[in-house]
Specification:
This protein is an alpha+beta fold. It contains eleven helices and 13 strands. Helices cover 31% and strands 29% of the residues. It is globular.
């Protein structure tokens, strides 16, 4: 469960200016608009997978995927402040260590190394998205850090440049910048926005256990579950989204990673069935799991399903989509 009152702090001192001096791929000086004393607060939305189709391994050791994604109203909050030098991170809640592998810091370094003579930044991250749950919390945080620093450092990079950097930070980060509803291809970094009529209501069932994405994919490969993607484009799912038809959408929810995750955590099939028994129109695991999604007709229906299914999960949330990815305020 989320440790709401647990507070972890780490000061990770890298001199961004010297790092960018060694590694910069562009020789631009600090933009005139860069702000040395400024602060922004961002909200980063969780993502869910309505459809996830996983192809064979590519030569670069990534799987080719087709994934239908939607941002939902569960958020992390990220406060970013410009400081004279260095990068620091504080994490509150969620059991997430604020170390150098955190995608907030990965995103900051990715941006810093492209410009010389930049100041530093301090981040305070308040977790609302569970970790290792298939909800893209790390990717959402990386997206928020990238966009916030682009503003605070006065870089104002073109959207295409930010998308390219986001893909370097992580496969889901490009989608998490804008959010909404989209289809991801390639290794997940190529995003195309798709229409979604109305509001989709979900019961999000969060498990007691965690599942690391790489662990699930490794087991997926061990079980030899990959199948060619030819002929598996999610046409019916996308049509259901475009028409705002929850019953039809429920029949098309799909995740190729479920067998691997279910083998690792044998209690997951029962949790999925619990959502169906509670009245959800359909249920599916999000991403690499173990979070389960129950699709509902409206908010009232979702509230009823959540109440009936809550004993099967560590935490249940009634939420909606689509919402924007990164917002400020």
């Amino acid at each position: 469960m989320q440790a709401r009152h647990r507070y972890m702090t780490a000061t990770l001192e890298w001199l961004a200016a010297s790092t960018s001096g060694r590694d910069a791929v562009a020789s631009q000086q600090r933009p005139q608009g860069a702000q040395r004393s400024a602060r922004l607060r961002a909200r980063a939305a969780a993502k869910v997978n309505l459809g996830l189709y996983v192809g064979p391994l590519r030569e670069d050791a990534h799987h080719e995927v087709v994934s239908v994604l939607q941002s939902i109203a569960i958020w992390d909050e990220l406060e970013v402040e410009v400081v004279p030098e260095g990068l620091g991170l504080e994490v509150e809640g969620g059991g997430l260590p604020p170390d150098e592998t955190n995608l907030v810091l990965v995103a900051a370094r990715e941006l810093a190394r492209r410009s010389r003579d930049l100041p530093g930044a301090r981040f305070r991250l308040r977790k609302g998205i569970p970790i290792s749950a298939g909800l893209g919390g790390g990717s959402a945080d990386g997206a928020a850090a990238l966009i916030a620093l682009d503003r605070l450092w006065g870089l104002h990079l073109p959207a295409v440049n930010l998308q390219t950097m986001a893909a370097e930070v992580g496969s889901d980060v490009p989608f998490c910048i804008g959010g909404g509803t989209g289809v991801a291809t390639g290794r997940g970094e190529k995003i195309r926005e798709v229409p979604a009529a109305g509001t989709t209501w979900w019961v999000v069932g969060i498990d007691h256990e965690h599942l690391a994405t790489q662990h699930v994919y490794n087991h997926f490969d061990e079980l030899d579950l990959a199948a060619p993607l030819e002929g598996r484009w999610p046409t019916e799912l996308l049509d259901a989204l475009a028409k705002g038809d929850p019953e039809r959408l429920a029949a098309t929810l799909h995740n190729d990673l479920e067998p691997a995750a279910f083998d690792l955590l044998p209690g997951l099939p029962k949790a999925k069935q619990r959502l169906r028994d509670a009245g959800a129109l359909g249920a599916v695991m999000s991403g690499s799991g173990p979070t389960m999604l129950g699709l509902c007709r409206d908010e009232e229906h979702a509230t009823q399903v959540a109440r009936a299914a809550r004993s099967a999960f560590a935490r249940t949330e009634v939420t909606r989509g689509p919402v924007p990815g990164v917002t400020f305020g």
